[in-house]
Amino acid sequence: MNSYHVGIAAEAIVASLFARCGYDVSIQYGANQPEYDLVVIKGESIIKVSVKGSQDGGWGLTQSYLTKGKADYHAAIDKWLANHGKNTIMALVQFEKIAIPDMPEVYLATPNQIAEKLKAARSGKGDTILYKYHKWTGKSFAKGTEEKIPESWKFSEELVQRIFADCI
Description:
Elements: H1 3-20, E1 24-27, E2 38-42, E3 45-54, E4 58-60, H2 73-82, E5 88-94, E6 105-109, H3 111-120, E7 129-131, E8 133-135, E9 146-148, H4 157-167
Parallel strand pairs: 3-5
Antiparallel strand pairs: 1-2, 2-3, 4-7, 5-6, 8-9
Helix pairs in contact: 2-3
């Protein structure tokens, strides 16, 4: 798939999962979307959902926030985090090694949880990419360490209820 198709497929999958859990979903389409792609509604409560799809095992989230010529990953992560409101959650969809018609893995996390994970990456130096799983090798100073999405972020009805309650 090209990046356009990854994005469309990821949004559709996340929308369908929320709908299957009994939430109303409104989808934004088109260019220049603000901080979110979907609005999820239950009664009077509303949550914005930013959907990120990937087919290579990681989600590049903060690279555009790096200051040119300066690799201050923590500052870039803080700038990225400042662009997300308290009622926004991230939905991460991973298509790597997922054949059709199998469903990709979907994870939910708050921007704060993701920022914490990004800052802890590479032995605390930080990174612009959130990895589903990555083991640092070679000459990296983080050699031998691993980055991994927490199992607790895996999409489930219980997680949706908990995040929804926490964001309101």
